[in-house]
Amino acid sequence: MSTLVSALPRRPSWTVLELPRVAYPEALALQHRLLARRLEGTLSDDALVILEHFPVFTLGRRGGSEHLKVSQEFLEAHGIAVIPAERGGNITYHGPGQLILYPLVDLQRHRLAVTDYVARLEEVMIRLAARWGVHAERRPENRGVWVGVKKLGSVGIAVRKHIAFHGLAFNAAVDLTPFSWIDPCGLSGVQMTSLSRETGKPVSMARIRADAKQCIETVFGVALNAGNPDAFLEPKPHASSNPYPKASLDPDPASARA
Q1: Fewer CB within 10 Å of terminal CB in the chain, N or C?
Q2: Domain assignment of residue 255, yes or no
C-alpha cells in the first residue's frame, strides 16, 4: 500500500555575494550592476550582498549634510568622505564592525509593499539581536530597530521598477564615535548603540554574518545560495585599498574578528 506525500513548496532562491571590507563607491557600483542585470532579466534570482564598509558618511534622499557637526577640514583630517546615495532617509555612518546587508529583491514576486519589506528588514535585525540575548524593537515614530531609546540598526532602501536595493546597517561591533559627529538619520539627540556595547562581550563578525543569513532565510522564506562576487565586481574590492587612507576607525576593541 503506497502513501501519497505532497512535496513541500520550493522556497525562492537568493544568490549571496559575501565580500570583505569594501569602499562605499565600489559597493554602490556593484548594486547598480546587479540591479541592471535583474531588470534586463540576465540575473534570474534575487541577490543578497553582505559586507562591511570603510569609514564613510552617506546622505540619503532627504539629504543630511546640514546634520554634520564637524567641518570639512575635520573630515579630511580623518580621511572620511561624505557620499550621496539614492536610498531613503538622511545622513548615517558606516564603518568596520557594522554589518551591511544589501538585498536586491523583486517586491512584486514576493508580493510585498514597500512598508512590509522595510518591516521585514527590521525583523531580521530584531531576530539577529535576540540571538545574542539583546531585546530590540521597532519604534512607531522612527524606522530601524532600537534598544530602549538607543538605535541599534538602520534601514534605507531605494526601489527601481519594483526591484528594491540598498538595505540595512546593523551595529555589531562598530566604533560608535563617528555617530557623535552627526545627527544620526537627521534625528537630534539620538544615541546609537552596538551589539558589543549592549552585551559587554566580544562580537565575532563571522558569527554575525552566519546568524544574519539564517535570519534572512527565516524572515523572507528563501534559500540562500553562495555566488561568486568576482563575476559582478569591477574593480575587485579584494585587491583594492581603502580610498580614505587616514581613516583608522577599527571595530570596537571589545569585538573579536574571526
Answers
A1: N
A2: no
Range of the domain at 166: 13-231
Alpha carbon dihedral 235, 63, 73, 95, in 10-degree steps, equals: -50
Nearest to 183 by CA among 86, 85, 66, 35: 66
| β-bridge pairing 137-139 and 142-147 | antiparallel
What is the mean pLDDT of the segment spanning 226-247?
65
**What is the phi-psi region of residue 166: left when phi exceeds 0, alpha when psi lies from -120 to 50, beta otherwise?**
left
- With beta carbons less than 8 A apart as the criterion, state whether 151 and 144 touch: yes
Q: Could you give the residue numbers annotated as active site?
A: 185
Dump pLDDT digits (tens) for 35-53.
Answer: 999 999 999 999 999 999 9
The x, y and z cell numbers of residue 239, run together, are 585587491
Residue 134 is part of a domain; what is its CATH number? 3.30.930.10
Cα distance between residue 148 and residue 139, in whole Å = 9
Is there a domain that residue 132 lies in?
Answer: yes
Q: For residue 213, tell me if it sits in a domain.
A: yes
Chain segment 133-189, per-residue pLDDT in tens: 999 999 988 899 999 999 999 999 999 999 999 999 999 999 999 999 988 877 788
- State how far the Cα of 129 lies from the Cα of 212, in Å rounded to an integer: 10
Residue 90 and residue 67 in contact, taking contact as beta carbons nearer than 8 Å? yes
Which stretches of 84-138 are DSSP H helices? 107-110, 114-130
Q: What is the DSSP letter of 235?
A: S
Q: Give the CA dihedral 173, 174, 176, 178, nearest 10 degrees.
A: 180
Record the pTM: 0.89
Residue 248 forms part of a structural domain: no
What amino acid is encoded at 24 in this protein?
Y
- Domain count across the chain: 1
Please check whether residue 178 is in contact with residue 249, taking contact to mean a CB–CB distance below 8 angstroms: yes
